[in-house]
Write a structure and sequence with these properties.
The protein contains 19 helices and 22 strands. By secondary structure, the protein is of the alpha/beta class. The chain folds into 2 domains: 319 residues, TIM Barrel; 91 residues, Golgi alpha-mannosidase II (Immunoglobulin-like), CATH 2.60.40.1180.
Length: 483
């Protein structure tokens, strides 16, 4: 992949159902239209992350279809939801084999080859923290999971379920949320569990070029201990599972990509374990809820950390940008993440302008494509595919005031590669903002603005005084110039 790659997340089941609704026939991964592949090439994507390809949990389907919470979320947008429109969570993995409804392993390999022919990598999920509640190992080898044997747990009984042999096994959980009742919690203090999950990871690595590791911080020794110490004790293993796993996989696949979903300020710690990229949820939250000054503060972090962060304004866990941010702000936020160092993640339904998020268990996610939103992303990603954004040197940039102090709401940075410069100027506020754009280091007779195609003349006067810009609320400008 290029430095600062563009990654496209696709909700696999919902995507295939959308194709089915459009074309009037069933689709598997073997049947993806050429037009789609041509489009992602033209938009400059380096990798496709197929979310949710693994074998479904039969019990997970039943749990999801009988969940009042899931039904209520869907009915708020689609009142006519049917039981068959809801499937198991992709993160309650029954087995690390490609689900037959998607065409199985052969169909995935055929799709991967078509991506490879176009220079695009395939990324898949690896769910390290838990397995499905009914996966075979729950019955055959319950000691792989946090359990209390056949004795009912004395505390937190609602965290546990009883397997077919009468063993009480914990559900997977994040300490800040209720247990996920369709999952079984793995015990990483058991060496057998580590070997079991390492073997699963080896199987996954044969099928793709990289993995997005779900909730990677939950398997860190100290985190695992703090959540489950009552049931597994407090003696930490000598090695982190991720140290072992990354080392093992890269012995066989040296270029294999590891992306970690990680929170709680543990991003740098996980990066140091060898992950290529970690989620930048801090930036997402600041883009959504904070001021431009707070965003600038975050972008002042150490450069290596920035380079190994994955930026996003959408993924399957977050509300759709159009609803979360509002239309204009969402496009400005996406322009920010598309022009910063680090991996740049976009969700397929985000590009199509999905108006609101659906639960990931809902697969019949039909909505009308928003042509205006899609056209903006096409333009943005085309601009951000310029070599300067992938091989150049990045730095924050300060614009000047122009008669008032509204320039404080403007975010600006630049990229320089050989003789080419790119300057990004974004009014990240809901009011107009003015600034003065310095041009003293610009060579040539003009500066081109990429979204509009307009050019600003460069004269001796503007080199001295700069150029005054007035930006509408959440307006973005990207300038190209010679240096």
């Amino acid at each position: 992949m290029r430095t600062n790659p563009h990654i496209l997340e696709i909700d696999t089941r919902a995507w295939l159902k959308r194709l089915e609704a459009k074309h009037g026939r069933a689709f598997t991964l073997r049947d993806i239209p050429e037009q789609f592949l041509d489009t992602i090439v033209s938009m400059g994507f380096d990798a496709v992350w197929l979310m949710g390809v693994w074998q479904q949990s039969p019990l997970g389907v039943s749990i999801a279809q009988n969940s009042a919470e899931i039904q209520n979320q869907v009915r708020a947008i689609k009142p006519d939801v049917k039981p068959e429109d809801i499937s198991a969570s992709p993160y309650a993995v029954y087995d690390y084999t490609v689900d037959s409804s998607l065409g199985g392993t052969d169909a995935l390999q055929a799709f991967r080859q078509r991506l490879q022919d176009r220079g695009i990598l395939l990324l898949l999920d690896f769910v390290g923290n838990h397995m499905a509640i009914d996966c075979p190992a729950v019955s055959s080898d319950p000691d792989l999971f946090v359990n209390t044997g056949t004795a009912e747990p004395a505390h937190h009984k609602d965290w546990f379920f009883k397997n077919p042999n009468g063993v009480y096994i914990a559900h997977g959980r994040d300490p800040y949320f209720a247990p996920w009742t369709d999952t079984a919690q793995l015990n990483y203090f058991n060496p057998k569990t580590r070997e079991y999950m390492l073997n699963n990871l080896r199987r996954v690595a044969q099928l793709c070029d990289g993995v997005r590791c779900d909730l990677a911080m939950l398997t860190l020794n100290k985190v695992h201990r703090d959540i489950w110490w009552e049931f597994i004790g407090g003696t930490l293993p000598k090695e982190e599972f991720w140290h072992q796993a990354l080392s093992c996989i890269r012995e066989e696949y040296p270029e294999f990509t590891f992306i970690a979903e990680v929170y709680w300020g543990l991003e740098w710690e996980v990066q140091e374990m060898g992950f290529d990229y970690t989620y930048d949820k801090i930036l997402y939250d600041r883009l959504r809820f904070s001021s431009s000054q707070d965003i600038k503060g975050h972008l002042g972090a150490e450069h290596l950390y920035q380079m190994r962060s994955m930026r996003f304004t959408s993924n399957h866990d977050e509300e759709e940008p159009l609803k979360a941010f509002g239309r204009e702000k969402s496009l400005a936020a996406s322009t920010i993440i598309a022009t910063l160092p680090g991996a740049r993640l976009f969700q397929f339904f985000q590009l199509l302008g999905r108006p609101a998020r659906m639960p990931i268990q809902y697969v019949q996610d039909w909505f009308e494509k928003d042509e205006g939103v899609f056209a903006y992303y096409q333009k943005l990603l085309n601009i951000a595919s310029s070599p300067a954004f992938h091989g150049g040197q990045w730095s924050l940039f300060n614009v000047g005031n122009a008669g008032d102090d509204t320039a404080r709401n403007i975010l600006s940075w630049q990229w320089k590669q050989m003789n080419t410069g790119k300057l990004i100027v974004i009014n990240y506020s809901d009011a107009p903002a003015k600034c003065r754009l310095p041009l003293k280091n610009v060579r040539g007779s003009s500066v081109k603005e990429e979204f509009s195609g307009n050019e600003i003349p460069v004269t001796d006067e503007t080199k001295v005084q700069g150029v005054e810009l007035t930006l509408k609320p959440y307006e973005s400008k990207i300038f190209t110039f010679n240096v």
